[in-house]
């Protein structure tokens, strides 16, 4: 099953439960616009490499398109299309006034130099600049991109259209970024995990946690969960994982990465393979890297108390069902990782108003929205006796369908 087929599966199940007419279903199931561009890049050694880039706008019924830009070797049109659709449902669920979009360049950012990354970003921005805009489509960081990437995007767009800080979110604070945006997705994951633990009658304090992925989302989730009293026993990156049953010192592990490329060589833990890590005993499992890592081949070996999906699409539909049958609750991606787009919304609002919020206000508003959405999802799941994912999709699809109806899309 491709990433888009997996994302569509959950949508169609929801459309069935909601009794959505076929013609409306067709509008919501497919993208509004898909732009595929050629991104030629002059490499430092003089060679010309040609990459493929994409921007997919899935649905704009509830507001301007919004979603991150991914630099990864797997970022093809199908993957970007799936992620764009997930953004539509996520933005509706967390109730920010945005539609859903996603972008990507199919490349290996780790092997490109900083100047190659800058040229690639500026070229890609120029190629998609015709369809983005402060009130049309606002990119943000995702896997393989960061605040620096957004600074280049903002500058490249500004060279064409004039100074426009609200064209991207997740910018450096010095350029109009919001305090708290960098850690927002990880912070949202922890708010959601704590609320979910409460609802499931489990302890968060001293709960053992395993996190796959130690990038922006994984690192901040690990750090903030440790500070909130959970015991993070394992984390990993693309190379492999670090496991210490007594708990990892997250700051020390981050310090280790100043000189080393992977968590696997950290002396305060034993090494573990990425696949093995997912199957270790723990109270809370947090996939925070790529899609499709919990699948039919390993679902029956997952031993976590519950799963919090920090990554987009980490659980395949077959695994989703298998875990449900074994009583392992999954807090779905469109809820668990919505903290990033929530603070992106705050950043966009601040840019439009040219007025800076302080960190306390950002974190207060983030907690309010994440908690409210989590409570709504749990209440809906209880009311209709479905999984948390089904409840989250039903709430989101209902809201988008309603907006599309009122606007006259149908
Ligand atoms: P990142 O690039 O900062 O970090 C990704 C991490 O995953 C790195 O540690 C990398 O080594 C690891 N990784 C990559 N491929 C892997 C593999 N095959 N197996 C195991 N680990 C692997 O990315 P990020 O921004 O932290 O995003 C992580 C996930 O969270 C993605 O699914 C992304 O879509 C999702 N997400 C990110 C944000 C955000 O604000 N950055 C918001 C919502 C959702």
Low-confidence stretches: none
Individual helix count: 14
Q: Characterize the overall form.
A: globular
> How is the largest sheet built, in terms of strand order?
9-8-7-6-10-11-12
Helix/strand/pairing category: alpha/beta
Topology, number of strands? 12
How do the SSEs run, as a string of H and E? HHEEEHEHEHHEHEEHEHEEHEHHHH
N→C terminal distance:
29 Å
The overall pLDDT, averaged over residues, is 97
Q: What ligand species are in this complex?
A: nicotinamide-adenine-dinucleotide
The whole-angstrom Rg is 20 Å
Structure description:
With 410 residues, the protein is of the alpha/beta class. The chain is 45% helix and 17% strand. The chain has helices at residues 3-18, 22-29, 77-93, 114-128, 147-161, 184-199, 216-227, 250-256, 274-278, 317-325, 333-336, 339-353, 359-384, 388-407; strands spanning 33-42, 48-59, 65-72, 99-106, 137-141, 208-212, 231-236, 241-243, 270-272, 284-287, 306-308, 329-331. The protein has a 7-stranded mixed β-sheet with strand order 9-8-7-6-10-11-12, with helices on both faces. Helix 6 packs across helix 12 and helix 12 (339-353) packs across helix 13 (359-384). The radius of gyration is 20 Å and the shape is globular. The two termini are 29 Å apart. The model has no long low-confidence stretch (mean pLDDT 97). Nicotinamide-adenine-dinucleotide (NAD) binds at residues 141-144, 185, 212-218, 236-238, 274, 288-290, 310-312, 337, 340.
């Amino acid at each position: 099953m491709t990433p888009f087929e997996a994302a569509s599966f959950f949508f169609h199940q929801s459309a069935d439960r909601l009794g959505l007419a076929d013609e409306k279903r067709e509008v919501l199931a497919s993208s509004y616009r898909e732009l595929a561009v050629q991104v030629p890049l002059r490499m430092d050694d003089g060679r010309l490499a040609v990459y493929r880039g994409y921007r997919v706008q899935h649905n704009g019924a509830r507001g301007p398109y919004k979603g991150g830009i991914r630099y990864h070797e797997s970022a093809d049109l199908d993957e970007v299309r799936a992620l764009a659709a997930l953004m539509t449902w996520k933005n509706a669920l967390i109730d920010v006034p945005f539609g859903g979009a996603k972008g990507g360049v199919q490349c290996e950012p780790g092997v490109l130099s900083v100047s190659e990354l800058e040229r690639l970003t500026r070229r890609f921005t120029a190629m998609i600049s015709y369809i983005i805009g402060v009130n049309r489509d606002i990119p943000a960081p995702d896997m393989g991109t960061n605040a620096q990437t957004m600074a280049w995007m903002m500058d490249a767009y500004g060279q064409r259209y004039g100074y426009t800080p609200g064209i991207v979110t997740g910018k450096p604070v010095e350029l109009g970024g919001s305090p708290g945006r960098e850690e927002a997705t990880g912070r949202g994951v922890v708010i959601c995990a704590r609320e979910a633990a409460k609802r499931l009658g489990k302890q968060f304090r001293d709960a053992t946690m395993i996190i796959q992925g130690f990038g922006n989302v994984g690192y901040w989730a690990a750090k903030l969960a440790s500070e909130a009293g959970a015991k993070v026993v394992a984390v990993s990156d693309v190379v492999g994982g670090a496991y210490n049953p007594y708990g990892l010192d997250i700051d020390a592990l981050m310090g280790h990465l100043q000189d080393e490329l992977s968590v696997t060589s950290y002396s305060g833990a034993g090494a573990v393979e990425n696949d093995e890590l997912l199957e270790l005993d723990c109270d809370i499992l947090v996939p925070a890297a790529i899609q499709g890592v919990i699948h039919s081949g390993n679902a029956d070996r997952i031993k976590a108390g519950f799963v919090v999906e920090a990554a987009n699409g980490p659980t395949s539909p077959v695994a989703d069902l298998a875990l449900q049958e074994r009583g392992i609750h999954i807090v779905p991606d469109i809820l668990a990782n919505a903290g990033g787009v929530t603070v992106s919304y705050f950043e966009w609002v601040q840019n439009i108003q040219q007025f800076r919020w302080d960190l306390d206000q950002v974190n207060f508003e983030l907690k309010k929205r994440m908690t409210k959405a989590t409570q709504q999802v749990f209440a809906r799941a209880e009311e209709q006796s479905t999984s948390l994912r089904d409840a989250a999709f039903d709430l989101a699809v209902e809201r988008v369908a309603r907006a599309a109806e009122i606007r006259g899309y149908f």
